């Protein structure tokens, strides 16, 4: 309970300090103040009835804000002495009214701090200054409205608007994925080539298939003519390998044993030397 009381006191002190802080909304160096004639009817004010060539006072205007209340201060342009002040608790409202015949003139309600009030006419020399004055008050009270809504939502979070991300009945979603096309019959991935020992890739076999293991291609005795390669007599006269003589395994090894001693001195005349 004690901690809660301390936190509440701290928040109250912070709020009081925020209310004491005075922010400057805009400053205009040249304004004129006019005495208002008695109103003949309930129609709006008209600046043409104020004797605009004879202002009652001239100086600068400074618009400030303390908390949610804005203050229109008319000050001496040299000394900064306060001439009149108009507190504004709501805009648009009775504290600041526009005239019906010009955008450069307004009627403000000033107070002296003792409960006495009076209405004065205020006119800007430049039309842009009048626009800035109007926008400054609008922005301030827009901020006040947002702060009050946030405070109300913080007190009652269940009453705040809820974000609904669900699909409504019959609602669909469409995805447009561009530049994504697939070829018909594509395998989706290239076939890896076989790799021989040592890291060398091997070419794939020809379309006709490879011969069975242990079997060599047919003899060159019946050469096949390749496209663009004519078979001439010079190619046919090339020495062709002869078939090995048929003999038993013992005769072969016997001949090999006999020939082992004289292999270095004999020359096979049946083969062409390169």
Question: Helix and strand layout, with pairings?
Answer:
Layout: H1 2-20, E1 23-35, E2 57-66, E3 69-75, E4 82-88, E5 96-98, E6 105-111, E7 117-124, H2 127-155, H3 233-236, H4 249-261
Antiparallel strand pairs: 1-2, 1-7, 2-3, 3-4, 5-6, 6-7
Work out the oligomeric state of the chains in this entry.
single chain
The helix content is 10-25%
**Could you name the ranges where pLDDT drops below 50 across 5 or more consecutive residues?**
1-6, 263-274
Major sheet description? 7 strands, antiparallel
The SS-based structural class is alpha+beta
Overview of this structure, please?
The chain contains four helices and seven strands, in the order αβββββββααα. The chain has 274 residues and is an alpha+beta fold. A seven-stranded antiparallel beta sheet has the order 4-3-2-1-7-6-5. A hairpin with a 6-residue loop joins strand 5 and strand 6. The protein starts with a helix and ends in a 13-residue tail after the last helix.
């Amino acid at each position: 309970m004690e901690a809660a009381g301390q936190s509440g006191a701290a928040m109250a002190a912070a709020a009081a300090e925020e209310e004491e802080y005075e922010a400057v909304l805009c400053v205009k160096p040249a304004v004129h103040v006019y005495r208002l004639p008695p109103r003949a009817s309930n129609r709006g004010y008209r600046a043409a009835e104020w004797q605009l060539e004879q202002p009652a006072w001239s100086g600068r205007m400074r618009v400030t804000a303390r908390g949610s209340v804005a203050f229109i201060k008319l000050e001496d342009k040299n000394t900064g002495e306060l001439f009149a002040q108009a507190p504004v608790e709501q805009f648009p409202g009775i504290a600041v009214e526009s005239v019906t015949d010009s955008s450069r003139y307004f009627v403000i309600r000033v107070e002296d701090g003792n409960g006495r009030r009076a209405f004065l006419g205020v006119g800007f020399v430049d039309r842009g200054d009048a626009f800035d004055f109007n926008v400054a008050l609008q922005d301030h009270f827009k901020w006040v409205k947002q702060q009050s809504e946030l405070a109300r939502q913080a007190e009652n979070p269940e009453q705040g608007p809820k974000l609904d991300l669900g699909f409504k009945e019959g609602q669909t979603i469409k995805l447009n994925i561009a530049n994504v096309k697939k070829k018909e019959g594509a395998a989706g991935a290239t076939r890896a080539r076989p790799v021989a020992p040592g890291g060398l890739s091997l070419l794939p076999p020809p379309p006709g298939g490879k011969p069975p293991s242990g079997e060599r291609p047919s003899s060159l005795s019946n050469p096949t003519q390749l496209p663009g390669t004519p078979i001439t007599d010079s190619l046919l006269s090339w020495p062709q390998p002869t078939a090995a003589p048929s003999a038993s395994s013992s005769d072969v090894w016997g001949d090999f044993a006999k020939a082992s001693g004289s292999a270095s001195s004999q020359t096979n005349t049946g083969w062409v030397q390169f």
